[in-house]
C-alpha cells in the first residue's frame, strides 16, 4: 500500500477496544514519526504514555480544572477511560534565535499527525483529542510539564472494533483550498 492510500484510508476512531500497543510496539513508530520536518533539528516535542491509573489521574485533573461536581464531574472524569492508551503530545520549546515557538509547535503537531497515521496503518484505532483542559494548571501538573512545555492534546489509542462504522469522508472541493499565485 502506498502512503497516499494509507492517508486516504485513515479515519478517527472515537470508540476503541481495550487492546493497545505495548511500549515496545510504539518505539519504532515514534522513531519513524520523529523524522518529521523540524527546523534546526530541535526535536521540540515529547510524548507521554498514559495507561491504567494514569488515565484516572487525568480524569481527576479534568474535574479539578473544571470545577464541576456530581454527575457532570463523574462523566468528565471518565473521558480518559475511553481508550486503554493515551499518548500526551507535548510541545517542548527549545531555545533558538531562528526557530520561533509557533514553528516548534508545528513540529510537535507534525509528530502527532505522523504517529496517528502510523498507528492507523499498524491496525490501531486512533483519535486525537484536545480541549480547554490541555492548558489548565491541574492537567499541566498531572503531566509534570516543565515551564517550556505545553500540551497539544492526546492520541487516544486502542483496538479497532470489528463492527466499526465506516466514517464517510466528505468529498473535498480541493480547488477551494488549493490555489496558485
Order of strands in the sheet with most strands: 1-2-4-3
Give a count of the beta strands, DSSP E runs of length 2 or more: 4
Count of spatially separate domains: 1
Name the poorly predicted regions: none
Cα gyration radius (Å) = 17 Å
What name is given to the CATH topology?
NADH Oxidase
Integer average pLDDT = 94
Text of the CATH class? Alpha Beta
Strand-pairing-aware structural class: alpha+beta
The general outline is globular
Instruction: Give the H and E element order.
Output: HHEHHEHEHEH
Tell me what the CATH architecture is: 3-Layer(aba) Sandwich
- How would a textbook summarize the main sheet? 4 strands, antiparallel
Give the helix tally.
Answer: 7
CATH fourth-tier homologous superfamily = NADH Oxidase
**Roughly how much helix do the residues carry, as a percent range?**
40-55%
Q: Would you write up a description of this structure?
A:
The radius of gyration is 17 Å and the shape is globular. The protein is α+β, with helices and mostly antiparallel strands and 181 residues long. 40% of the residues lie in helices and 18% in strands. It has one domain (3-159): NADH Oxidase (3-Layer(aba) Sandwich). The chain starts with a helix and ends with a helix. The model has no long low-confidence stretch (mean pLDDT 94). Helix 3 (53-66) crosses helix 4 and helix 3 (53-66) packs antiparallel against helix 6 (137-143). The protein has seven helices and four strands; from the N terminus they run H-H-E-H-H-E-H-E-H-E-H. The chain has a four-stranded antiparallel β-sheet with strand order 1-2-4-3.
Amino acid at each position: 500500500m502506498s502512503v497516499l492510500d494509507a492517508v486516504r484510508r485513515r479515519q478517527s476512531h472515537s470508540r476503541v477496544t481495550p487492546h493497545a500497543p505495548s511500549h515496545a510496539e510504539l518505539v519504532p513508530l515514534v522513531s519513524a514519526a520523529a523524522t518529521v520536518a523540524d527546523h534546526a533539528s530541535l526535536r521540540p516535542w515529547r510524548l507521554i504514555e498514559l495507561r491504567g491509573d494514569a488515565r484516572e489521574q487525568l480524569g481527576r485533573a479534568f474535574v479539578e480544572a473544571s470545577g464541576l461536581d456530581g454527575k457532570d464531574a463523574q462523566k468528565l472524569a471518565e473521558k480518559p477511560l475511553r481508550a486503554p492508551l493515551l499518548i500526551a503530545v507535548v510541545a517542548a520549546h527549545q531555545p533558538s534565535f531562528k526557530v520561533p515557538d509557533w514553528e516548534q509547535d508545528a513540529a510537535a503537531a507534525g509528530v502527532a499527525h505522523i504517529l496517528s497515521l502510523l498507528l492507523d496503518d499498524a491496525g490501531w484505532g486512533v483519535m486525537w483529542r484536545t480541549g480547554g483542559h490541555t492548558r489548565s494548571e491541574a492537567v499541566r501538573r498531572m503531566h509534570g510539564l516543565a515551564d517550556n512545555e505545553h500540551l497539544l492534546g492526546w492520541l487516544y489509542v486502542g483496538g479497532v472494533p470489528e463492527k466499526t462504522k465506516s466514517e464517510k469522508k466528505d468529498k473535498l472541493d480541493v480547488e477551494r483550498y488549493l490555489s496558485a499565485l
